[in-house]
Amino acid sequence: SAVDFIAIDGPAGSGKSSVSKAVARRLGFGYLDTGSAYRALAWHVLDRGADTADADAVLAAASDFPVRLGLDPDDRTVRVGDVDITDEIREPRVSGAVSGVARVPAVRAQVNDLFRSLVAEAPYPAVVVEGRDITTVVAPDAPVRILLTAAPEVRAARRAGELSGENADAVAAALHKRDASDSAVVDFLNAADGVEIVDSTELDFPQTIDAVLTVIERLR
Ligand code: C5P
Fold this sequence. Notes:
Elements: E1 4-9, H1 16-27, E2 30-33, H2 34-47, H3 55-62, E3 67-69, E4 78-80, E5 83-84, H4 92-102, H5 105-120, E6 126-131, H6 134-138, E7 144-149, H7 152-162, H8 168-183, E8 196-199, H9 205-219
Parallel strand pairs: 1-6, 1-7, 2-6, 7-8
Antiparallel strand pairs: 3-4, 4-5
This protein binds cytidine-5'-monophosphate.
The site of cytidine-5'-monophosphate has 14 residues, from helix 2, helix 4 and helix 8.
């Protein structure tokens, strides 16, 4: 399509969402948080009272899934039908269920088609698309493909800082568990051929944004 994918993958707590959003804003690009679609589907399965570990139930829910995702980096509202679930999809019950939903191959194929059509019809010159398999599966031919990484302890500390009041050890354990089940589905801890690595372990937020902008300028 005429709209470029800026593909950014990385693990939970790598700063991927905040960095991708900031980069999109800076460049006047659209922004697509693919994790929010999987989260919305997990919410939808739970809302139907179905079992998120049951692949058939998940697939049935996915075939009747009126998710509405915007591409405006300043509006991250997520809806299923008319229900605004923007905040609910960040709750631990959804985070804990999402890997199970994301494991079903037919679900991934369907969600990937949704992502590709959202980008193809986007009213932007490019869309920053962040997730786990954007550089490898959704848009392997994207002009810009970046893997954003950070040391596990740094990721856990950042995530614990975001969720004020939560126990840092519990946050680290939940993060580790989700990364482990997600890694069994797609490898987002190692860069595929041609994917640029940006390691933010030693970088603060503005420095990470600059590092990503530098890669985009060089490749696009
Ligand atoms: O990025 P975020 O942590 O919000 O993603 C939530 C979950 O969605 C991940 O833990 C993973 O199970 C799933 N996901 C995925 N593929 C993507 C993006 C997210 O499987 N491209």
